[in-house]
Specification:
Layout lengths: L1 H25 L5 E9 L7 E9 L2 E5 L5 E3 L4 H8 L3 H9 L1
Antiparallel strand pairs: 1-2, 2-3, 3-4
């Protein structure tokens, strides 16, 4: 009898957890698309990158090549440039 009660309790808990996770994903805020921004290397040797921009309730984000949304710091163009085409040059400058 006690094994039966434990099994039912475990199933109920797992359904509750999975139901909560799926509800959270369905209510995820996607933000409003603003457009796109092109950021070019300030060193001139790494080209340019274009990324989509969206406005969320907390600020602007850009979409990385991998599909993740990353917060823009002050200026989206500068943030994209530092995170992509000038990443290593920027790291060297900051370490000085």
């Amino acid at each position: 009898m006690s094994k039966y009660v434990i099994a039912i309790a475990a199933l109920t808990a797992s359904f509750t957890i999975f139901g909560t996770l799926s509800d959270a994903q369905s209510r995820r805020y996607e933000g409003k698309s603003v457009g796109s921004v092109t950021a070019c290397s300030k060193y001139g040797n790494h080209g340019c990158v274009t990324a989509k921009i969206r406005q969320t309730q907390l600020g602007l984000q850009y979409r990385s090549k991998g599909g993740n949304w990353i917060w823009c710091e002050h200026d989206c163009r500068d943030t994209i440039r530092r995170h992509t085409v000038d990443f290593w040059n920027d790291q060297m400058e900051r370490s000085k």
